[in-house]
Design a protein that fits this description.
The chain is mainly alpha-helical. It has 19 helices and 5 strands. It has 3 domains: 1-72, no CATH class; 193-293; 319-486, Tetratricopeptide repeat domain (Serine Threonine Protein Phosphatase 5, Tetratricopeptide repeat, Alpha Horseshoe), CATH 1.25.40. The longest helix has 30 residues, at 264-293. It starts with 26 loop residues before the first helix and ends in a 5-residue tail after the last helix.
């Protein structure tokens, strides 16, 4: 009873696209690049242009036609001596050729870097080739698309996650070119700086030798390698900063080169000259140590030998000669007696010597013996001062032995303050009188640098040669052990 009715609806959406004349020659490229929905979104003024039903058997097709404008613009751009025709379209200005141009530019930068690497390989390690690598490397690094790749390479990170920006092949090529460029630039810096620290430290070592301080020459030798490697690192960071754009990246680049062991060549370039400077300094110091160990083992300063002093002046007439004879007799006796008898005889000899000086103040023999006895150990400061005065008076009258005693007192600091300058003065005066023992003493002072800013081994040997020529045995021994004959 009643009626029934139903409706069957079949809804199928189809899209189509048509271009009104005149048709832009790049319109089909836009259609291939974008979907129809995206083209509709980028058009403006979209209006319903036509709506009609098309009979098709039992079903009907409703056709809705819309009309809109798609703004297409063309731009000619020049980059890297190439001209590009760029097309942009739509309300939001979509670039049809942007990806193609970016790939072209990126590959151009990469190929320029790879060409520079080939040139560097075929031209050796010339400075110009290494400088030619800096510019193409800077162009590759400065590209914003390459930034993530460069950071990943310097941080030793995998590049798999970065293939969404560029192709895997491009990423691998960039990595290899970047590492090769860093290695060659590092080697170039090493080639230009390997000589700087060895030369500087070598000159400092030679200066130490010239100043007669051979042991100090070892210090520049020890500092050569750290200084050389420091210069290499500083210059590498400076050059990489110029190429990579900032200092943190430059430091990462240096560490990456070292971690990848690409720095071995540069390391050897700096290591070998530095070791050579150190070896020379150590050899010279060892040679000097051998000379010093073989230095004369004779007493520090020579005492007068028999026959070494010129003949004394004749004693003054009167009681002075008797006093002097008595003083000499007691002094010689004291040298053969044990204490305390020797001390008593020495004090008695001093009294008789002073009586001789009082009796004849200008007698050189009396002045010499009295001065020698009153300046011996145990005498009071007043007596020592008086004795030095008498010795200087005898020396002024030409007594070489008085000059010698004064030199010994000043160099040894016995009873008076040590004064190497005064000692050298009196030894020189004594040597000028022909005393071989004081020529030896002057040579010993030069050998040890007494009263000098530095030792003078050559002048020491000259003095010893003079003393040896006069028969001094200590000078001969010194020459045999530490002089030219002992080398």
């Amino acid at each position: 009873m009643g009626t029934a009715a139903w409706v069957e609806v079949y809804h199928t959406v189809e899209y189509g696209q048509g271009w009104f004349s005149p048709v832009d020659p790049r319109a089909d490229d836009i259609r291939k690049e974008e979907k129809l929905h995206d083209i509709v979104r980028e058009s403006r003024g979209l209006t319903l242009n036509k709506l009609h039903r098309k009979e098709d058997g039992m079903s009907g097709l409703v056709v809705a036609g819309y009309r809109g404008e798609l703004d297409i613009r063309h731009l000619d751009a020049a980059c890297r001596e190439k001209t590009y025709h760029v097309v942009t379209y739509g309300v939001n200005r979509q670039w049809l050729d942007l990806n193609h141009i970016l790939r072209d530019l990126l590959n151009g930068d990469l190929e320029a870097l790879r060409s520079a690497l080939v040139l560097a390989d075929t031209s050796g390690h010339s400075k110009q080739c290494k400088e030619n690598l800096t510019t193409p490397l800077r162009d590759v690094v400065n590209s914003e698309i390459n930034t993530a790749l460069v950071d990943a390479v310097l941080d030793s990170q995998p590049l798999d996650e970065l293939h969404t920006l560029v192709s895997a092949d491009y990423a691998e090529k960039l990595k290899n070119a970047l590492l090769s460029a860093l290695k060659r630039i590092y080697d170039g810096v090493a080639m230009r700086t390997w000589w700087q620290a060895p030369l500087t430290c070598g000159l400092l070592g030679l200066a130490a030798w010239g100043l007669k301080h051979p042991y100090w020459a070892v210090l520049p030798g020890i500092c050569t390698l750290p200084m050389s490697l420091g210069i290499l690192r500083f210059q590498s960071v400076r050059v990489f900063t110029s190429a990579l754009g900032d200092r943190p990246k430059a430091k990462k680049a240096v560490e990456h080169v070292r971690k990848a062991k690409h720095h071995r060549k540069g390391l050897w370039l700096h290591l070998l000259p530095s070791l050579a400077v150190l070896a020379l300094a150590a050899t010279g110091a060892a040679h000097q140590y051998t000379l010093d160990r073989n230095a004369p083992t004779a007493p520090i300063f020579a005492i007068p030998l028999a026959g070494d002093a010129p003949s004394r002046e004749a004693a003054s007439p009167g009681n002075a000669q008797d006093y002097l004879s008595r003083a000499r007799s007691l002094w010689e006796k004291s040298t053969r007696e044990p204490a305390p008898a020797s001390e008593n005889d020495r004090l008695a000899a001093t009294d008789w010597a002073l009586k001789a000086v009082n009796a004849s103040p200008e007698d050189n023999d009396a002045l010499l013996l009295a001065g020698q006895l009153t300046t011996m150990e145990g005498q009071s400061p007043v007596a020592v001062t008086k004795g030095v005065t008498m010795l200087k008076k005898a020396a002024s009258k030409g007594s070489g032995e008085a000059m010698h005693i004064l030199g010994l007192m000043y160099i040894m600091g016995s009873q008076i303050p040590k004064d190497a300058g005064q000692a050298r003065h009196w030894f020189t005066e004594a040597a000028n009188t022909g005393r071989a023992s004081d020529m030896y003493n002057l040579g010993l002072m030069d050998w040890r640098g007494e009263g000098m800013s530095a030792t003078d081994k050559d002048r020491a040997r000259q003095w010893w040669n003079k003393a040896a020529a006069r028969g001094d045995s200590r000078a001969k021994q010194a020459l045999a052990q530490g002089g030219p004959g002992g080398h």
